[in-house]
Amino acid sequence: MSDLSSTTPAPANTPAPVQVPAETLSAAGVLGWASRAVAELSARRAEINALNVFPVPDADTGSNMTHTMEAALNEARKLDPDATVARITEALAVGSVRGARGNSGVVLSQVLRAIAQAAADGVVDGRTIQKSLSIARSLVDRAITDPVEGTVVTVLRAAAIAAEQAVEEGYGSLTEVVNHAVWAARTALARTPSQLEVLREAGVVDAGGQGLVILLESLQQQITGAPGPDGGLDAGTQTGTRSPEGASRPITIDHDSHGRVGDLEVMFYLTCAQAEDFDALQQEIAGLGDSLLIARESDTRGTVHIHSRRAGEVIEAAFRAGEVTHLRLEILPEAHSTEVPRRVLIAVTPHGSLADLYRSAGATVVTRDTAELTEAEPSNEIVSEIVAAARATRADEVILLPNGLLTKRELVSIERSSHAFEQAVTILPTSTLVAGIAALSLHDPSQPLGVDSYAMAEAASAMRTAELRVAGSAALTQAGACSKGDLLAFSGQEILLIAEELNDALSRTCLRLLDGGGEQVTLLIARDREKDFDEDTFRRGLGTHSRVDLTVYPASGMENLVEIGVE
């Protein structure tokens, strides 16, 4: 392999266990590992976010670890192509400390800082990895003022001990040390629910621990040249195992869980004149909040993280201690205990009145800007938001109404991510917002999931729908020639008709849809054109169908001018 080299072979007749030659990872190999880690964390961001229930259930661990690793890689990529291993690992450490986000990002930065210290002589072999994990364990213990078992701290310790034992027992090659560390980390991760009640109640493993396992697995894959995972959680980690005793119990986050009502997450990068100033700040703010972590780049520089209801005092103390940069404040979610619903509906809608409409009908709403649908790549953010919303409900069964606002690839990611915590996610074929309303009207939570989802899907499919859009330019269409500004009525990809006036376009389109029967018409009209709609004119245009039931909703944020549904 191009990024591995070997030292002198071991002498003959070496007693068992056989001493395997110590492979080394080149500068290109280190960069390759960092790049692979970024890709893996990014691809599995939604999974990790969904596991995030400690210290606060803010569903951002995957995002924070990805951002931190990206910051590290970006710093390393600034170096010359011929940069040494020592310079690359140092750049990874500097970038991660300065770009750290959240608890998990701070911990990740200390792991990279440990690698830089261990690789200062320019060699990354089995003993370097063993030394890195040992240093990382010490740095993380120092960074976290109140460590809790069942978290990434536990997983890191297990990996460090396994690596040390591997070297002591004669299995000191790079491959062997990393294999031992990965196995131990996976095992420790699977056991985290037995150590932390909030994980046990949620039926998940620790999110930060999962991120660390992915980091180690990426190193393992870089060494062996194996392809990365396909995005699914490794079965060996058992990260989706739901604890039987906690399957239907609510989560209550209290003071002991390090997340309190009204807390702010405060993060900043601090440069002090001397090390004593940094130590004094740590002592001063320790009593001002929870989850205090300090990721040091050196004795006088580092990133500070704390959850506090006294953020002003924390910031004042920081400015007294030294130079403050990269100051970030984030409101942490309020902790509360609720009854766990058996089944919930999650609907994707634009921002505004339609979101309110779906909420009033009992759905959990995730909003999306329709402009995102024109982007070529699927959105990790919308996937994370939906998975986090499903996870937060604590329901065993989730029915998702995409409403035409999710791509096929995004739906695949959502379905796969749901496996991380064993929720049954049923995706209904609601290709429009108006079809979603039809499905929602037939929701019956008293029925079995299959019966309920079948009735809702049938209602959505039975509704005949069309959309009105404004022609952006003159063109020759299958319905004839149109001018810029004309109204085009679409049904799927087919253009039904062309009209110049809103009421005429609506009545003629509805007549086409009513030819197949129907007694209910639903119109979702963009707010800026609602004033142009006249019900009397519209009904006169329907002729013999003028007595149909009519429901009109003003809608904001839609891509279409009007959505029409007939049932």
From TrEMBL:
GO terms for biological process: glycerol metabolic process. The lineage of its organism: Bacteria, Bacillati, Actinomycetota, Actinomycetes, Mycobacteriales. GO terms for molecular function: glycerone kinase activity. InterPro entries: DegV_domain_contain, DhaL_dom, DhaL_dom_sf, FakA-like_C, FakA-like_M, YloV-like. Residues 28-221 form the DhaL domain. This is DhaL domain-containing protein. It comes from Corynebacterium efficiens (strain DSM 44549 / YS-314 / AJ 12310 / JCM 11189 / NBRC 100395). NCBIfam families: YloV (TIGR03599). Gene3D superfamilies: 1.25.40.340. Pfam families: Dak2 (PF02734), FakA-like_C (PF13684), FakA-like_M (PF21645). Residues 225-256 are annotated as: Disordered. PROSITE patterns: DHAL. It comes from the Bacteria. Transmembrane segments: none annotated.
